[in-house]
Design goal:
Elements lengths: L5 E6 L7 H14 L4 E6 L1 H4 L6 H17 L8 E4 L5 H10 L4 H5 L2 H9 L6 H16 L4 E3 L5 H17 L8 E3 L34 H9 L16 H14 L3 H7 L5 H27 L2 H30 L8
Parallel strand pairs: 1-2, 2-3, 4-5
Helix pairs in contact: 3-12, 4-7, 4-13, 7-8, 9-12, 10-12
This protein binds adenosine monophosphate and tryptophan (TRP).
Length: 334
């Protein structure tokens, strides 16, 4: 057992990874992997809370795993697995469901938004989605959860549930902390810079996928909505430009101030083509590695097999404690 602190995070395979997923979450995972004991999961059980074509879900689950690795997450150093392979996630969810208040779940912004978007499929899974997420995190006794800004409320719920359980029974769960980056914890849409870049949006010019071609990436950035002020400034009055500066800064590691200084008096056309260039430069190695990995399915299978075995051991241990504490008779084996 290592004495490193634990990280858990995941992405739903409900679409291909966007630049928002990468800059808001996955890039941080890469940076944190040496310092922490990390569990990086493809959360397929979360994905089915909205309708998924089974064949596409299977394909995308593997693609997301490959994109994690291509982005720089090392399967030798981290536990990488597929959520549905470790049944403890579903089992802990049942226990935590029985301790979750309808009122609190009803207040979840993501639930409210998704209810509007999925009025024809308003299922109970959508409602208890954050409880499954809490189970993901708590099973591994995670100290830290690196996510984008939009997951704050879900993290609060996970903390509440951990504390509630610890108080009602006895200390069992680590109460997890959220980890978001100062710049780039919410990448906005290119066409609508007032709402977050999302893979479920229907306007494909609004988002950049990690696996978009360099040409498509450039075209989307050049078409990004800006303003008529013609000043490269990091200001709330210029949400489009602010977002492009954020993207530039996250891709290069250059500070916002230095980018503003560099583009003082420079027009949006040149700025946009430079943004496209740094995005393409940063993404190209990921795209190439992704291609290579998708031609090596045996390797990917090995990664998720080993990952599930390692995750299972840790998760079972927590679940066993939970079952005992709530009063379930431990199962006997012959
Ligand atoms: P999802 O695609 O909803 O499963 O999100 C996976 C991870 O990416 C979560 O940590 C999200 O908070 C993060 N994320 C998704 N979209 C964005 C965005 N536009 N900006 C920053 N982070 C994001
Ligand atoms: N709900 C997260 C999202 O939509 C994905 C997720 C599921 C997750 N389980 C998690 C993120 C556990 C961090 C930790 O982005």
């Amino acid at each position: 057992m290592s004495d490193k602190k634990v990280i858990f995070s995941g992405v739903k395979p409900s679409g291909d990874l966007t630049l928002g997923n990468y800059l808001g979450a996955i890039k941080n995972w890469v940076d944190l992997q040496d310092e922490y004991d990390c569990y990086y999961c493809v959360v397929d059980m979360h994905a089915i809370t909205v309708h998924q074509e089974p064949k596409d879900l299977r394909k995308r689950t593997l693609e997301i795993l490959a994109q994690y690795i291509a982005a720089g997450i090392d399967p030798e150093k981290n536990t990488m697995f597929i959520q549905s392979h470790v049944s403890a996630h579903a089992e802990l969810t049942w226990v935590l469901n029985s301790m979750s208040y309808m009122g609190q779940l009803n207040r979840m912004t993501q639930f409210k938004e998704k209810s509007k978007d999925n009025a024809d499929n308003l299922n109970a899974g959508l409602f208890t989605y954050p409880v499954l997420m809490a189970s993901d995190i708590l099973l591994y006794q995670a100290d830290l959860v690196p996510v984008g800004d939009d997951q704050k409320q879900h993290l609060e719920l996970a903390r509440d549930l951990a504390e509630r359980f610890n108080n009602r029974y006895s200390p069992t769960f680590v109460v997890p902390e959220i980890y978001t980056s100062k710049v780039g914890s919410r990448i906005m849409g290119l066409q609508d810079p007032t709402s977050k870049m999302s893979k479920s949006g229907d306007n494909e010019n609004d988002y950049i996928l990690l696996i978009d071609s360099p040409k498509a990436t450039e075209k989307k950035i050049k078409r990004a909505v800006t303003d008529s002020l013609n000043k490269v400034r990091y200001s709330d009055d210029q949400p489009g430009i602010k977002n492009l500066i954020t993207i530039y800064s996250k891709m290069t590691g250059e500070s916002v101030e230095s980018i503003e200084a560099k583009y003082e008096g420079v027009g949006y056309g040149k700025f946009k083509s430079d943004v496209a260039e740094v995005v393409n430069e940063g993404l190209q190695p990921i795209r190439d590695e992704f291609e290579r990995l998708m031609n090596n399915k045996d390797y990917l299978e090995d990664v998720y097999m080993n990952g599930a075995n390692a995750a299972e051991r840790v998760a079972r241990k927590t679940l066993r404690k939970v079952y005992k504490k709530v009063g379930f008779i431990p199962r006997k084996f012959k």
